[in-house]
């Protein structure tokens, strides 16, 4: 009877796995599949990040098996139907609702069933046209003495024929600061040789160092995911936790959220926030006015500005004089002196752009109308003859051009018109700010920037593209100020960012990656402990390759286990010191079984 139940369970598992695999060839299934009421099966591939990428380097689709959530929430819940299933994305690690692991005993049962249905010699299962299924990985709860957190199985094949199975086991202990628990590299190599009957092994190292992370400002944690870290890989490891040699391959990873008050371009960020508030007001007809950027009211600033222009017109009779187009710096656009060399305020602000600098202090709809009323009256009466850049299509620019001929059209300052007028001149000004930076630093050409400054799309999309420009600016400025990057590094980074943003929406959680030489950033990590340090010990080639991985990491290596269910060391802060860096210790081993 037990053998018959096992045969039926294997056949049912194969059916479920095959169905999910066939659906996944078209597109990743939205819902996981339930197996025997307690197991959820999900197919992960494509854009989904593999949760076991640190320990398995396959790049195809994989099955992830874990405990069905409804068992946790309610034992009385009915067996799920496909329409009731949770979304596949929920199987991926999340802070709010993490995945749930199966017991190691249950995981071993499932691995056994998977092995049965992939073994072509199991003819009694009556499987016709046996399909080679994707690798299968199971989340484990660490309930065994080894504290197993993953079990995996991957078919070995020759052509379309399955010849064996690779078994994987990932275990985790920690966290601990006691380095006496750390492995000895020579012992790891010897254990690998003995297990796999290998005479020669190859070692490969990996280390990850944080270079810049959101830090504490005046005893307050900045709520930001910003981080700049470097991944380094090298061949031939000589000892555990060795510093990577300078001949290593390195990749800089940049995650940057705009709006850090410490940023040298924070004022420009606040300017952008005002622009976004106007865009939202245009869309919803409800404007939430942000805190004014100036202490003086916008009406007072505009009135003073217009008075100065009238005096200038009275003092200089020759129309078109160079003095009229004298470069006037925006007195409210000051930026941090440390960044002036790479992001300096423009000296060619025209009338509309200078108005924007004054009107960023608008704090109400009524104040906005008062400002534009003053401006339009000055234009109608010929009291000012302002200079503007060519190419602007804003309504205010059109009125200014009409004023040159002594007559301007009547504009009704009601509804959303005043908000749109201010949004247009703000967009024009900020686009030129970003153009000035990227072209001035020789990071892009005007042609390459055309997508980001195009006026052929609606105002909302133009604002969205300006947000992208700002995010790229923050990245370049951060790398310049914090990492002392020069043009040779900033230029390829700019191309990477622009290529991404021409194809994707704004995403400040995206990781931008730049290949670099370790020497470029070594001074930032050479005296620090790594966040992750790993050694891979391998032997064999092709499908006969076997690998042992030993890793330490400051964060838990898997999301479905915490320090409460990993193997805790009671003396995790040895010698009475709590300053030592705490590490989780992870081991990944594999073994092969060949079918005869």
Automatic annotation (TrEMBL):
Presence of keyword Cell cycle: yes
Cellular localization per UniProt: Chromosome, Centromere, Kinetochore
Entry's Gene Ontology BP terms: cell division; mitotic spindle assembly checkpoint signaling; protein localization to kinetochore
CC terms in the record's Gene Ontology section: RZZ complex
Alphabetic keyword roster: Cell cycle, Cell division, Centromere, Chromosome, Kinetochore, Mitosis
Gene3D superfamilies xrefs: 1.10.287.1880, 1.20.58.730, 2.20.25.230, 6.10.140.520, 6.20.270.10
Family from the record: Belongs to the ZWILCH family.
Subunit description: Component of the RZZ complex.
PANTHER family named in the record: PROTEIN ZWILCH HOMOLOG
Functional summary from the UniProt entry: Essential component of the mitotic checkpoint, which prevents cells from prematurely exiting mitosis. Required for the assembly of the dynein-dynactin and MAD1-MAD2 complexes onto kinetochores. Its function related to the spindle assembly machinery is proposed to depend on its association in the mitotic RZZ complex.
Protein name: Protein zwilch
Organism of this sequence: Accipiter nisus (Eurasian sparrowhawk)
Organism placement in taxonomy: Eukaryota, Metazoa, Chordata, Craniata, Vertebrata
């Amino acid at each position: 009877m037990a053998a018959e139940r096992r045969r039926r369970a294997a056949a049912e598992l194969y059916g479920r796995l095959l169905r999910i695999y066939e659906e996944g060839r078209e597109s990743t299934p939205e819902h996981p599949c339930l197996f025997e009421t307690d197991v959820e099966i999900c197919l992960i591939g494509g854009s989904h990040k593999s949760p076991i990428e640190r320990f398995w380097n396959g790049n195809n689709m994989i099955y992830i098996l874990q405990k069905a959530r409804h068992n946790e929430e309610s034992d009385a819940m009915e067996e799920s139907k496909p329409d009731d299933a949770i979304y596949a994305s929920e199987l991926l690690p999340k802070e709010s609702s993490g995945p749930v692991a199966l017991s190691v005993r249950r995981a071993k049962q499932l691995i056994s069933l998977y092995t049965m249905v992939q073994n072509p010699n199991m003819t009694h299962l009556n499987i016709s046209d046996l399909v080679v299924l994707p690798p299968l990985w199971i989340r484990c709860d660490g309930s065994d003495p080894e504290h197993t957190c993953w079990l995996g199985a991957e078919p070995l094949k020759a052509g379309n024929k399955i010849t064996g199975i690779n078994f994987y086991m990932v275990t985790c202990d920690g966290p601990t600061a006691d380095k006496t628990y750390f492995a000895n590299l020579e012992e790891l190599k010897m254990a690998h040789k003995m297990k796999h009957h290998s005479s020669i092994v190859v070692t490969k190292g990996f280390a990850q160092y944080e270079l810049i992370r959101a830090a504490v400002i005046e005893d307050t944690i900045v709520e930001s995911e910003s981080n700049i870290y470097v991944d380094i890989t090298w061949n031939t490891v000589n000892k555990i936790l060795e510093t990577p040699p300078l001949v290593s391959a390195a990749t800089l990873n940049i995650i940057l959220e705009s709006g850090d008050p410490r940023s040298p371009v924070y004022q420009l960020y606040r300017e952008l926030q005002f622009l976004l508030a106007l865009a939202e007001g245009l869309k919803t007809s409800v404007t939430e006015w942000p805190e004014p950027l100036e202490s003086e009211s916008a009406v007072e600033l505009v009135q003073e500005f217009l008075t100065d222009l009238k005096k200038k017109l009275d003092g200089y009779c020759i129309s078109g004089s160079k003095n009229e187009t004298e470069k006037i710096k925006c007195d409210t656009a000051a930026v941090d002196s440390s960044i002036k060399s790479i992001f300096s305020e423009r000296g060619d602000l025209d009338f509309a752009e200078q108005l924007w600098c004054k009107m960023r202090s608008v704090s109400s709809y009524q104040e906005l109308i008062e400002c534009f009323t003053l401006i339009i009256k000055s234009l109608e009466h010929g009291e000012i003859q302002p200079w503007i850049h060519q190419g602007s299509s804003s309504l205010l620019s059109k009125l200014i051009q009409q004023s040159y001929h002594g007559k301007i059209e009547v504009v009704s300052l009601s509804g959303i018109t005043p908000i749109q007028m201010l949004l247009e001149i703000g967009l024009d000004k900020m686009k030129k700010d970003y153009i000035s930076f990227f072209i001035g630093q020789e990071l892009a050409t005007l042609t390459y920037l055309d997508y980001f400054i195009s006026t052929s799309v609606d105002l909302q999309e133009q604002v969205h593209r300006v947000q992208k420009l700002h995010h790229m600016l923050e990245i370049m400025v951060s790398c310049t100020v914090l990492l002392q990057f020069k043009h040779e590094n900033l230029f390829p980074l700019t191309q990477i960012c622009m290529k991404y943003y021409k194809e994707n929406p704004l995403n400040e959680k995206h990781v931008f990656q730049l290949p670099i030489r370790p020497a470029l950033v070594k001074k930032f990590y050479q005296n620090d402990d790594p966040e992750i340090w790993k050694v891979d010990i391998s032997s064999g080639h092709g499908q006969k390759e076997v690998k042992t991985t030993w890793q330490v990491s400051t964060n838990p290596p898997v999301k479905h286990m915490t320090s409460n269910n990993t193997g805790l060391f009671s003396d995790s802060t040895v010698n009475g010191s709590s300053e030592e860096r705490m590490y989780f210790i992870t081991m990944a081993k594999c073994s092969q079984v060949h079918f005869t």
